[in-house]
Amino acid sequence: MISITPLAQEKLSAFLAENQTKPQVRVFLPLAGCGGDNQLSLTVDEPNENDFSVKSGELTLSIDKKLQEMTGSVTIDFKDDGFDSGFVVDPEKILPPSESDGCGGCCDCC
User: Fold this and answer.
1) 92: buried, middle or exposed (CB in 10 Å: 19+, 13-18, 0-12)?
2) 26-51: per-residue pLDDT in tens?
3) Using CA atoms, how far apart are residues 43 and 47, in angstroms rounded to an integer?
4) Domains of the chain (ranges plus CATH)?
């Protein structure tokens, strides 16, 4: 299940309209760097047959079915703290750390 707060819906709809983008949003898990915590993100993308999708107003919200098995329910919110503002995507379940948990797996940065 994907839910979105009223404030996040308002901000996301305004952003997409401003950028003349289709109101189709995907929750996804970007590749993490060395030892990084996995955090869900948002992108503009059309749903496909491997997704769970819901309509919320004019928005279509999608997440890959396998990812949703890992995350459980997902809530999209908007944090409005002045300088530190933005969308927050909270999963029901804690995501495991990336497989490159530690140094040496992805770069020579350590």
Assistant:
1) exposed
2) 999 997 655 556 889 999 999 999 99
3) 11
4) 2-91 (2.60.300.12)
Nearest to 45 by CA among 57, 53, 34: 53
Structure tokens at 36: 């990084």
Residue-wise pLDDT for 73-94, tens only, equals 999 999 988 888 999 999 999 9
Cβ 7 vs Cβ 77: under 8 Å: yes
CA gap 110, 34 in Å, rounded: 9
What's the rounded Cα separation, in Å, for the pair 38 and 16?
25
